Amino acid sequence: MGQGLRSPIGPRAVHLCVDMQQLFAPGGPWPTPWAPRILPVIVELAGRVPGRTLFSRFIPPHAPEALPGTWRQLYSKWREVTQAQLAPELLELVPELRRFSPPAQLVDKTRYSAFSSPSLLPLLAHLGADTLVLTGAETDVCILATLFDAVDYGFRVVVARDAVCSSSDAGHDAVLHMLSQRLSIQVEVAEMEEILSAWRTADAA
C-alpha cells in the first residue's frame, strides 16, 4: 500500500508520536494488542531525532460530565477510564519512550486529534515544522484524526506504515488502503527504513 516517499525529508520535519501510553498498552483498559510490535521502530526514530520528537498523550476527563455530547456518553460507558477511577500511571508514556523526554516534548490532549491540544501548533511553529512524520496509535482513530488536521493546516504528512497500529486490524488496513487511493498527493505512507534514510536533519545522531 502507498507510494513511499516522493522526496527527501528535510531538517524542518518533526516526529509526532501519538498516544503510546500505558492506557493503550497490553494490560491497559483500552489495549492495542500489537503495539509492542511497532514500539522498537518508534524507539529507533525517537532516538534518532529526540529534539524533534513530540509525544501526544490522551488525557480522559475527571468525570463524564466534564465533557459535552457524545463524549459524555463514551465516558459514561467507560467510567473506569476517567481520572476519578484511573490509575495515574496509565496516562504516562510506555517505559521505552519516557527516556526521550526531555528533549522530546509532551503534548496532552482530550480529543482524538493531537491538534486538539492548544500547545501543539505553537510547538510546531517554534520548531519551524513543515513536515510531520506520524507514528503511534490508533491508525483508524487518533492517527487518522491527527492526519486530517495536519493536512488542513498544510503540513506535509508522512505516515510510518510499520510504526502505527490499531486494536482493529480491519480498521488499520482500511485506513492505509484509503490513504493510498484517496490522499496520495497530500499524505505519503512509507516504511521506517525509507524514512530514516531520507531524513536529513542536524538533530539526527
What tags apply to this protein structure?
205 residues; alpha/beta; six-stranded parallel sheet
Report on the structure:
The protein is of the alpha/beta class and 205 residues long. The protein has one domain: 3-Layer(aba) Sandwich (Rossmann fold), CATH 3.40.50. 34% of the residues lie in helices and 19% in strands. The protein contains 7 helices and 6 strands; from the N terminus they run βαβααβαβαβαβα. The chain has a 6-stranded parallel β-sheet with strand order 3-2-1-4-5-6.
Structure summarized in a few sentences:
This protein has 205 residues and is of the alpha/beta class. It has seven helices and six strands; from the N terminus they run E-H-E-H-H-E-H-E-H-E-H-E-H.
**What's the tally of helices?**
7
Largest sheet features: 6 strands, parallel
Report the C-alpha radius of gyration, rounded.
Answer: 16 Å
- Relevant CATH superfamily: Isochorismatase-like
Average pLDDT level: 93
Second-tier CATH architecture: 3-Layer(aba) Sandwich
Structural class: alpha/beta
User: So what's the CATH class?
Assistant: Alpha Beta
